């Protein structure tokens, strides 16, 4: 475990040295770098001798700051600081849920280095489409009055999500599904059809907005939002392997 500094924020991270491209994992909303997918990728990369980085956004996990102070822009800046301070050369970015949004923003910002992107139940624009646009007038009134709303969590092991008006409004500055996503690297999107949080159609909408043509969507019939079953984890590692060796696998021109 180590820490780096981003705009005064102390970010917890762990780096595994190895060969490139470096795999960077972006966790989801209120998640951290100790999750099943993050640790599975670390084990896989260690076995392959491949460089790997996992980290906590500010206000998450072991990083400094209060969660309710955070915004999409802050967490994007955190992730870019991790990339710029801890990695060199080619990258394969892997984003889960909100991490898919943050990861896409970072991929566009560092597209000269990104060799591939993997989104797991990627949730760009969730602050508007899955939160604000779905909230009742009563919830919106609570947000306007108190600046925060505690959204119930559907998972048995989860506390209510503190949704701040600041987060919801600032998220509008980083929307992706209303414009082209200027990314030409191979992209792999994995989406569960039983995901209660992110509509399965989101993957297709991301695909439609990406400017590159090498985009493959994998729909998992029984897949939930977490995509952490053994078959899901095996699929994820296989996708990382594919994108890490992508150029080597391309057929030679006639």
Percentage of residues assigned to helices: 25-40%
Integer-rounded radius of gyration: 18 Å
Total DSSP helices: 9
Mean pLDDT rating: 93
Summed up, the domain count is 1
Shape: globular
Q: At the third CATH level, what is the topology name?
A: Rossmann fold
- The strand count comes to 10
What are the secondary-structure elements, in order, as H or E? EEEHEHEHEHHEEHEHEHH
N/C terminus separation: 49 Å
At the first level of CATH, what is the class?
Alpha Beta
The portion of residues forming beta strands comes to: 15-25%
Structural class: alpha/beta
Level-2 CATH architecture? 3-Layer(aba) Sandwich
Record keyword descriptors for this entry.
Rossmann fold, alpha/beta, 9 helices, two-stranded antiparallel sheet, globular, about 250 residues, single chain
């Amino acid at each position: 475990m180590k820490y780096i500094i981003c705009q005064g924020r102390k970010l917890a991270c762990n780096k595994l040295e190895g060969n490139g491209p470096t795999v960077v994992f972006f966790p989801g909303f209120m998640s951290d770098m100790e999750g099943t997918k993050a640790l599975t990728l670390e084990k896989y990369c260690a076995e392959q001798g491949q460089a790997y980085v996992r980290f906590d956004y500010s206000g998450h996990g072991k990083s400094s700051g209060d969660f309710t102070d955070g915004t999409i822009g802050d967490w994007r800046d955190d992730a870019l600081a991790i990339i710029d301070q801890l990695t060199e050369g080619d990258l394969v970015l892997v984003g889960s849920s909100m991490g898919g949004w943050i990861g896409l923003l970072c991929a566009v910002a560092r597209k000269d280095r990104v060799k591939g992107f993997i989104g797991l139940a990627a949730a760009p624009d969730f602050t508007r489409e899955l939160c604000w646009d779905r909230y009742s007038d009563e919830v919106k009134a609570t947000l306007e009055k108190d600046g925060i709303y505690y959204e119930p969590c559907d998972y048995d092991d989860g506390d209510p999500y503190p949704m701040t008006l600041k987060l919801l409004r600032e998220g509008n500055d980083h929307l992706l599904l209303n414009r082209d996503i200027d990314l030409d690297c191979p992209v792999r999107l994995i989406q569960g059809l039983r995901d209660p949080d992110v509509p399965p159609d989101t993957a297709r909408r991301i695909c439609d907005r990406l400017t590159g043509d090498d985009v493959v969507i994998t729909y998992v019939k029984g897949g939930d939002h977490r995509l952490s079953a053994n078959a899901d984890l095996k699929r994820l590692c296989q996708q990382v392997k594919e994108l890490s060796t992508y150029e080597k696998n391309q057929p030679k021109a006639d």
